[in-house]
Design goal:
The chain is built from four helices and seven strands, in the order αβββαβαββαβ. With about 150 residues, the chain is α/β, with parallel strands linked by helices. The protein has a seven-stranded mixed beta sheet with strand order 1-2-3-7-6-4-5, with helices on both faces. The relative contact order is 0.18. This is TRPM8 channel associated factor 1.
């Protein structure tokens, strides 16, 4: 994986402000492991977006699922799926619970489609944290080089 500073630069390219939904009450992310790093920290020092590598894959975690469906965050979301995808041009899969994200990505020219399951042919899979039915598949997907936006 690139250094955390290079990864941070890729994730933040062109992002000039954070216009997060005010009614979304985020959780605080706890970073563990040498590969993890904060991407967004609030005024109280709480990590609200983080990234890491896992196996041959990468991971970006946001502290509230509403951050994944906000058009105002499009520059960051595009950077995130771009950084997460180790196979340029591979399609982006979006779980049905985040269908608005597929529209945001498609509207920006990204090959994204709603997929109820993670597939090996995908470069990135986007899912909320409330689905526990695919845990083993998601771990395998990342270990094999897939990107996960959650």
């Amino acid at each position: 994986m690139a250094t955390p500073s290079a990864a941070f630069e890729a994730l933040m390219n062109g992002v000039t402000s954070w216009d997060v939904p005010e009614d979304a009450v985020p959780c605080e992310l706890l970073l563990i492991g040498e590969a993890s790093f904060p991407v967004m920290v609030n005024d109280m020092g709480q990590v609200l977006i983080a990234a890491s590598s896992y196996g041959r894959g990468r991971l970006v975690v946001v502290s509230h699922e509403d951050y994944l469906v906000e058009a105002q965050l499009t520059p960051f979301l595009l950077n995130a799926v771009g950084w997460l995808c180790s196979s340029p041009g591979a399609p982006i899969g979006v779980h049905p619970s985040l269908a608005p994200l597929a529209k945001i990505l498609e509207g920006s020219g990204v090959d994204a489609k709603v997929e109820p399951e993670v597939k090996d042919s995908l470069g990135v899979y986007c899912i909320d944290a409330y689905n526990e039915t695919m845990t083993e598949k998601l771990v395998k997907f990342m270990k094999c080089g897939g990107g996960l936006l959650i």
